[in-house]
Write a structure and sequence with these properties.
Helices cover 0% and strands 54% of the residues. The chain contains no helices and 11 strands.
């Protein structure tokens, strides 16, 4: 099982980034997929989630209207489009797949929002 995140980096406030997560080793299309993030000293928090068929999405309150989660089951990939980034969005972003009772995590990708 592998979840490999990419697309993180340094961006200025107000900028955009798109994170990607490539999955392998499990039945991706049957899993609900999510992005979480964790900043130093903070608990890991939900950023966004998308149901296995892509039909239902949910977002953390501070991400609504700025972030968009999507998935491509043909490519075993999930994406996170992040717009209007703020310094408080700085964190390590993790991709995770869940299908009870299993949950798989990636290693994370650093996003830093700073001028």
């Amino acid at each position: 099982v592998q979840l490999v995140e990419s697309g993180g980096g340094l961006v200025q406030p107000g900028g955009s980034l798109t994170l990607s997560c490539a999955a392998s080793g499990f039945a991706f299309s049957m899993y609900d997929m999510s992005w979480y993030r964790q900043a130093p000293g903070n608990a890991r928090e939900l950023v966004a989630s998308v149901a296995s068929n892509g039909g239902v999405t949910n977002y953390g309150d501070s991400m609504k209207g700025r972030f968009t989660i999507s998935r491509d089951n043909a490519k075993n990939s999930v994406y996170l489009q992040m717009n209007s980034l703020k310094p408080e969005d700085t964190a390590v972003y993790y991709c995770t797949g869940k299908r009870w009772p299993l949950q798989h995590w990636g290693q994370g990708t650093q996003v830093t929002v700073s001028s």
